[in-house]
Amino acid sequence: MEGLMQNHEEIAEYFRIHGVSVIFLFRRNLLRRMISVLANEYDRKAKLLNGTHKSHTHSVKEAEILAKYKPKINATLLKQNLRQVNDTTTKALGYFKSTRHIILYYEDVVKNRTKLLDVQDFLKVPRMDLKSHQVKIHKGSLSSQVENWNDVNKALIGTHYESFLHQDH
Ligand SMILES: *[C@@H]1O[C@H](CO)[C@@H](O)[C@H](O)[C@H]1NC(C)=O
Ligand SMILES: *[C@@H]1O[C@H](CO)[C@@H](O)[C@H](O)[C@H]1NC(C)=O
Ligand SMILES: *[C@@H]1O[C@H](CO)[C@@H](O)[C@H](O)[C@H]1NC(C)=O
Ligand SMILES: *[C@@H]1O[C@H](CO)[C@@H](O)[C@H](O)[C@H]1NC(C)=O
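YS: structure for the whole thing
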C-alpha cells in the first residue's frame, strides 16, 4: 500500500499502458478493520515464530485459538488513526480514478453475494458460484473482540465515528 501511494503516478501510468484493472476492497466499518489488522499482525507474528505462516485460516480449531487474542487499541490515537485511514482511502481513489476499477465493500459482499457476480462481470470472466473456504476468525460483537472496549467506546462516542461502535454486520 505504501509503495502504491508513493509511486502512484508511475503505477497508474503502468496500469493504463498495460490495461490493468483494479479492485478496491474496503470496509465500511474502519474500527472493525483496525481490529482485523491488529489480529492479523498478531497471527502473522505468532506463526512466524513457529516457522510457518498461513495467511488464511482454514482450520476452525486454529481460528478459535486466534480469536482468544484480543488487541488493545490505543484510544488516544484512535480518532486520528481512523481519520488517516479515511484520508488514505480517499487519496487512493483519487490517484487511481482514471484506472479501470470497481469499488467493493466487505460488508456489502458478506450481505449480498450478488456483488461477487458484479466482480466476475467486471473481470469479464464467466459467472460461477464462488464459495469461500476461509473461516472467519471473529464471530460476535466487536465489544467482545477488544481488550479495552470501554476506552474505545469513550473515545468514539459523540464523534462521527460513533456508528462504528454499533455496526455489527
Ligand atoms: C506454536 O507452536 C507451539 C508448539 O508446537 C504450539 O503449542 C503453539 O500453539 C503454536 N502457536 C501458534 C500460534 O501456532
Ligand atoms: C498511545 O500512543 C501514544 C503515542 O505513541 C503514546 O504516547 C501513549 O502512551 C499510548 N497510550 C497507550 C495507552 O498505550
Ligand atoms: C471519510 O469520511 C467521510 C466523512 O465522515 C465520509 O463521508 C466518507 O465516506 C469517508 N470516506 C471513506 C473512503 O471511507
Ligand atoms: C445486491 O447486489 C446487486 C448487485 O450489485 C444489486 O443489484 C442488488 O440491489 C443488491 N441487493 C440488495 C438487497 O442490496
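YS: worth flagging: The chain has one domain: 2-165.
IM: good catch. Also Residues 46-47, 50 surround 2-acetamido-2-deoxy-beta-D-glucopyranose (ligand 1) (CB under 6 Å).
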